[in-house]
Design a protein that fits this description.
Elements lengths: L2 H4 L1 E9 L5 E8 L3 E6 L24 E6 L4 E6 L6 E3 L4 E2 L2 E6 L7 E2 L7 E3 L14 E3 L5 E3 L13 E5 L5 E4 L8 E3 L20 E3 L11 E4 L2 E5 L11 E3 L6 E3 L1
Parallel strand pairs: 7-12, 14-18
Antiparallel strand pairs: 1-2, 2-3, 3-4, 4-20, 5-19, 6-7, 6-13, 8-9, 8-10, 11-12, 13-14, 15-16, 17-18
Length: 252
């Protein structure tokens, strides 16, 4: 059977988004892989970009997000991905910033990771120009989310919001689901010093069974492993229990 015959179009969007940009999105299911194609234009209003805190302008992209059609758990946990998921509408989840504490700069931050303290985006989102949907634009013009926006009350059950690089689904639950991550107690043992306020990624720690979810913000639901977006840190999964596609997001 040819690849063409194996292709099933689940969703196709080609329209003008609310903010005037032409939006394109398509989901295609192949034999072993599902791919979401997008031009990176969301289907909702976004903040004004550039703005005082963010000098970048939205640009249409040529994006491909591919992940296993039949995800499976492995014995390994994958950390360190910048793009941790894609929404069902073709917009990337990229929760990390590229800035680290650096006392040798005027702003106190730089792209030098040597301090080991990475800026946590949602501690002060206004300083990154993050909009009401918890998204903003990077240097390439890519609009992406740092966490999900407030979910409306239009649905009664858990809402599918996207997919992870290993193919497992990401849901938002109408019932409050508690993450097992929390702020560390005490003081930071080395510069920048001070208490653990949540300003940095390293201010948080995973405590097993502190909540309902594992270190990757996931759990089994009716026997199926599932990730959850939460209202508290880490907001979206930051690690993955399944076999990932290392080329999950491709900018063509």
């Amino acid at each position: 059977m040819t690849q063409l015959k194996l292709t099933l179009y689940l969703l196709f969007v080609f329209e003008f988004a609310a903010h005037g940009e032409e939006r394109f999105q398509k989901t295609t299911v192949y034999e072993h892989t599902t791919c979401i194609y997008s031009n990176g234009v969301p289907d909702h209003e976004i903040g004004k970009f550039p703005n005082e805190a963010n000098p970048n302008e939205l640009r249409k992209q040529d994006l491909t997000f591919c992940f296993p059609r039949f995800p499976r758990l492995t014995e390994n946990v994958t950390w360190g991905l910048m793009t941790v998921g894609v929404s069902t509408k073709g917009i990337a989840f990229r929760p990390y910033t590229a800035e680290y504490f650096d006392p040798n700069t005027r702003k106190g931050f730089s792209k030098n990771p040597s301090s080991g303290w990475r800026k946590q985006a949602m501690y002060d989102p206004a300083k990154l120009g993050i909009d009401a949907n918890n998204g903003h634009v990077d240097r390439s013009g890519l609009y992406h989310y740092h966490r999900i926006a407030e979910v409306s009350n239009e649905f009664e059950h858990d809402k599918l919001i996207g997919f992870a690089p290993d193919g497992f689904q990401i849901f938002y639950s109408r019932k409050y689901i508690k993450s097992s991550w929390k702020l560390k107690s005490g003081m930071r043992s080395y510069p920048p010093g001070g208490s653990h306020t949540g300003q940095f990624e390293e201010d948080f720690e995973y405590v097993s069974q502190n909540g309902e979810l594992d270190e990757c913000n996931g759990k089994k639901v009716n026997g199926v492993y599932t990730y959850f977006a939460t209202d508290t840190y880490p907001f979206v999964p930051r690690c993955f229990k399944g076999k990932i596609n290392p080329n999950f997001m491709v900018r063509n």
